[in-house]
Amino acid sequence: MDTSKIILVTGGARSGKSAFAERYAAALPGRHAYVATARIFDEEMAQRIAIHRKRRPSSWQTWEIPQDLPETMERLCQSSDVALVDCLTLYFSNYLFAHDGEDDEAIIDGALAELQAVLAAFRQAGVTAVLVTNELGCGIVPMEHVSRLYRDLMGKINQAAAAEADEVYLSVCGITTELKHQAVCLPEVKS
């Protein structure tokens, strides 16, 4: 019997989402993989990454995959039962910059296809995936095109991930609650 799940954990910056996701993943049995999507561009980012490394058990495998995650899925899934991906926000920021100059819709469509390939690989392999992502849509409309594109891209990525997820958690002020099972279901409109 397949007991794997897709778990999505979202919230704003410094909301407690990564710490919650790490605790959730740690409570699951089996071999654990931590998929780090960040790139170290400066000392401050290096310090953030060091804090994340300290928080998780040393028995976890760390996979540094800032882009091209679908190409690593077979090896990742063969070596783990639980995979924590932290985070989709940085991963798709890297994706956006790797596809700079392409048509906006092509970027969004390509990113969504990549997300679906990753989710399908986790499901097919029976790996439970805990995905962390930032909720970016609660602020003002950005002034620059690339910032609006990124906000729109992440909104679509987060909606697609939530639609596929078995559980969706929201962290605010260090308090986390499950959303998917509390979602309002409107009746279908009959035509």
Q: What characteristic shape results from the CA principal axes?
A: globular
Number of helices: 6
What is the CATH first-level class name?
Alpha Beta
**Low-pLDDT stretches:** none
- SSE run: EHEHEHEHHEHEE
Number of strands: 7
Number of domains in the coordinates? 1
- In percent, how helical is the residue content? 40-55%
Main sheet makeup: 7 strands, mixed
Q: What structural class should be given to the helix and strand makeup? A: alpha/beta
User: Considering the protein shown, what is the CATH homologous superfamily?
Assistant: P-loop containing nucleotide triphosphate hydrolases
Q: What strand line-up does the widest sheet have?
A: 3-2-4-5-1-6-7
EC number: 2.7.1.156, 2.7.7.62
Family: Belongs to the CobU/CobP family.
Enzyme class: transferase
Function: Catalyzes ATP-dependent phosphorylation of adenosylcobinamide and addition of GMP to adenosylcobinamide phosphate.
Summarize the structure.
The chain has helices spanning 17-26, 43-55, 73-78, 88-98, 104-125, 145-164, and strands at residues 6-11, 32-36, 61-64, 82-86, 128-134, 167-172, 175-178.
